[in-house]
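We close this part of the discussion by returning to an individual protein. Part of our work consisted of pairing the sequence of a single chain with a tokenised description of its backbone. No coordinates are needed to read the tokens, only the vocabulary itself. The amino acid sequence and the backbone structure tokens for this protein are reproduced below:
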Amino acid sequence: MISQRQLFLQHVGQTSDFPLQLEIERAEGIYMYDRTGKSYIDLISGVSVSNLGHLHPEVVKAVKNQADKYMHLMVYGEYVQTPQVEFTKKLSDLLPEKLNSTYFVNSGSEAIEGALKLAKRYTGRSEIVSFKNAYHGSTHGALSVMGNEEFKNSFRPLLPDIKFIDFNSEEDLVQITDKTACVLIEPVQGEGGIRLPESGYLKKLREKCDDHGVVLIFDEIQTGFGRTGSLFAFQKYDVIPDIFTIAKGMGGGMPIGAFVSSNEIMSNFKTNPILGHITTFGGHPVSCAAAKASIDILTSENYISEVEQKGELFREYLDHPEIKEIRGVGLFMAVELQDFTQVKKVIDIAVSKGLVTDWFLFHNSAFRIAPPLTITNEQIKEACLILNESITESLK
């Protein structure tokens, strides 16, 4: 009889010749379990998605309750749907006053697409400034603002009028001019290997955008919902964007994304043309119910306030002499080793020992640490023991 693994390789679209092929039967908390019952610590949260861990009971309850009432009704924006309204009101209450309008989509890439369209429509300009080593998704528009040529050259032609500047380079800010519609930036670069903004850089970027009437867009798809130790990274760095994008950790494991702005800016989608941005499944009521439950949990319990302390525990327990550097903020970290060969060995050994980590798209000499925010101190110690052992074994 043909196995699940063979069916997977034959019928599920693949993006590499070496998928991990873990056959997960269930997941709970920070753990995933395969068909034999073996447990794996999920140290990447499905790439910053499961911030509350897997199968959080309150999120599951919200999903079940909403599924019993209604699921898809009509394309986004036509009907008043309680899960959408409740989430946007809660989010608005937690944000600066001018960030009061949320447009729901299905994913991070879609959020980027919508944000770029909105900035161009609002300013009447076409030029976009993005950053080298930035990752914003894989759809055509998001690919166009990706700061890595190797990953996008095969898909050209892409969007025109895009400039790429160096992250943290104040000198490069001169490339932002009166012709620029928007600047799109990750407040902490993710796939570039967890690169933090230098002191004052984001404030200077904000000032430059203000000087030229440029829309500043923050991509908070990986950094959002507590990952850096504040609800959103822009709050940690005290710089307010004009638009910011969210997804991943937003839905407690359910697919959902959004871009958030002011009513003034968002209203540009209503005219010239009418229906300036539309989506069928954006703001799906079940996903919105999960998102509302997730944000309620994050803001009513101590998970976010404990993030920085938990990040420090990783730095304390990961004490292997082969580690060159640990970069990051909160529970969003990169552990730098010698090269990709060593990183790949460590990842494979760790999986065999029951721990899942990953490398970065544009920086392959480090592995990722981004566990559920619910991880306990004892679980951090357990994870670091496995990682230290895996690094030692990688040297043999």
